[in-house]
Design brief:
Number of strands: 11
Distance between the termini: 20 Å
CATH architecture of the largest domain: Alpha-Beta Barrel
Order of helices and strands: EEEHHHHEHEHEHEHEHEHHEEH
Strand content: 5-15%
Low-confidence stretches: none
Bound molecules: magnesium ion
CATH class of the largest domain: Alpha Beta
Number of helices: 12
Helix content: 25-40%
Number of domains: 2
Largest sheet: 8 strands, mixed
Length: 381
Amino acid sequence: MKILQIRERAVPVRSSLRNAAFDFGEMTTSIVAVITDRATGYAFNSTGRYACGASMRDRFIPRLLSADPETLLGDDGLIDPAKAVARMMTREKPGGDAERSVPIGTIETAIWDAVAKAKGQPLWRVLADRYGNPQMADKVPCYVGGGWYQPENDLALLQDEVRRHLDAGYTALKIKTGGLSLDADCRRLDATLAILGDAQNLAVDANAAMDLDRARAWAARLAPYNLRWFEEPVGVHAYGDFAELAASYSPALATGENLFCLADVDNLLRFGGFRLDRDVLQVDPPQAYGIDSFAKMVGLLETRGGSRRRVYPHGGNMMSFAVTAGLGLGGCEAYPGVFGAFAGYADDMHPENGLLSLPDAPGIGFERQKELFALMQELSA
Ligand SMILES: [Mg+2]
């Protein structure tokens, strides 16, 4: 198996969404096609991090294409994504991972798509075989990451949104918090629960926008709700603040979508007060050096006594879905109706009672996501 070409393009995500920290008015993402002599693999760099084509073109694509193809192969004669990452890391100074973990991870994920297609298997199956999945389920829990702030009629639109998700077959969702006053945010919580019911089906996400004092105030008000989790209450690398909050807030906390390498996760587990019996880890695979690196993070969590059932990868897309199913994680996120072509799953995947069935298409399955695949195909034409 040999890489012939790698193409990338920046695509606007086009969204008016807003969370507590920023809006998506300028958001872009990179779509990537890894064209091999066996199959073409595709990926995009998930949502929330801008397109990263410049470093792909300048460093990572030339390094891969200049490698002796034999040196990138595994024992099965197919490209070993871990070897491809090692090659892309040539001449990279240690540290500064966020600057390269997204472009490298996106290319790595596209390589997995090509490898799975070369095997004629869905990626989830390939990952389960490669990394071992003790409890392969035939359905995957899926929750909605939504509840963004609306400039007008926020409460009414929020309740409409909750009804829409329930009608579509979801049972659990997450809404934004920290973008308004505490009283106003609690009104959103109450409005959501009035329709959703069980607070264990509702999580809130502060998008790392709070300082410790503010997070403490929110935590004190949120605790009696006993929500499913309180996500990114404090700054991304404020491990000490996270630990302080974890010491006083009894229900689950969640974090990880802005951690980009194994050392970041190790630091969270060592110094962040992450409670292995309840807290939730949410790294985004294509943004964090790719799927092989993600699998190592899951392994580290388990080595420390945690459970993969409390790993919910960020990113409501087919990539995170394949990783969730393949590794037997707790569940995955969905973004129905937002982020344009980049939202959601294959067109024929619909949740029933909060569960998604496993698709049988080879690879990640972008081919069955018509609008997105049209963009990807333009790249490889
Ligand atoms: Mg989040």
